[in-house]
TrEMBL record:
Molecular-function GO term, any one: NADP binding
Annotated Gene Ontology cellular component terms: membrane
Keyword line: Coiled coil, Transducer
Keyword Electron transport: no
Higher taxonomy: Bacteria, Bacillati, Bacillota, Clostridia, Halanaerobiales
Protein species of origin: Selenihalanaerobacter shriftii
Segments forming a coiled coil: 181-215
This protein's name: Homoserine dehydrogenase, NAD binding domain
GO BP annotation list: chemotaxis; signal transduction
Family to which this protein belongs: Belongs to the methyl-accepting chemotaxis (MCP) protein family.
Domain Methyl-accepting transducer: 113-225
Length: 225
């Protein structure tokens, strides 16, 4: 069973109101129903319009609204606070003054800690990505060396088979050697194929890590805005 959303009205469209609005818009448990400021170009007002949140230049639209449970006053004006206290419905709660400032600082600290966490995770992923890339290149070099050995083994098996055929009955020893070398070459070839498949899976994983790092960096930029 889902909890009902807390319906909020914000009075004050400055930087503080804008930062609060950004956080509230990202929270499923909160719905910002209206924001008021006499300045139609105030940062929070412009953001609210972009996000489809109702805006007004009349604080009474927020104070008297029946679809609001909590009013957050971020203007810092005693006159505005007095108007709110005098006209709000009894069941409506108000966060004002120092409490609003504290809430703003908590949000700023939250954003900073999230940025640090994302940066730490991103750096670790980049380090893992670089190590995987380096190891993958080493594996490729080893595979090439094994392939050369396999090729040499195949040539040796062919030469042994030819010698066995020339030697006739006395060449049975060559024939046994040729068979053993050929079997070893086949096993070596299968090993190379398995290594290449595993290495390709590692390369694919590294590409996913690259995408994840890009996403994390984007999220970090969003938090810093």
């Amino acid at each position: 069973m889902s909890l009902e959303k807390v319906r909020i009205g914000i009075i004050g469209g400055g930087t503080g109101g804008e930062e609060l609005l950004k956080i509230f818009l990202s929270m499923d448990s909160i719905k910002v129903n209206c924001i008021a400021d006499i300045d139609v170009d105030a940062p929070a007002i412009l953001l609210a319009k972009e996000e489809g949140v109702k805006t007004t230049t009349e604080i009474m639209d927020v104070i008297k609204a029946r679809e609001i449970d909590l009013i957050i006053e971020v203007t810092g004006s005693k006159e505005v606070l007095a108007i709110i206290e005098e006209n709000k419905r009894s069941e409506v709660n108000v966060i004002t003054g120092n409490a609003s400032f504290l809430l703003f600082n908590i949000i700023q600290e939250y954003k900073r800690s999230q940025q640090e966490l994302l940066e730490t995770v991103t750096n670790h992923l980049v380090e893992v990505h670089d190590n995987i890339g380096e190891n993958s290149r080493d594996v490729n070099k080893s595979v090439m060396e094994i392939e050369k050995v396999t090729s040499d083994l195949n040539m040796l098996a062919i030469n042994a088979s030819i010698e066995a055929a020339h030697a006739g009955e006395s060449g049975k020893g060559f024939s046994v050697v040729a068979g053993a070398v050929k079997d070893l070459a086949n096993k070596s070839s299968n090993l190379v194929q398995n290594i290449e498949e595993v290495n390709q899976n590692i390369i694919n994983l590294n590409e996913k890590i690259t995408d994840a790092v890009a996403d994390l960096r984007t999220q970090n930029l969003d938090l810093s805005e």
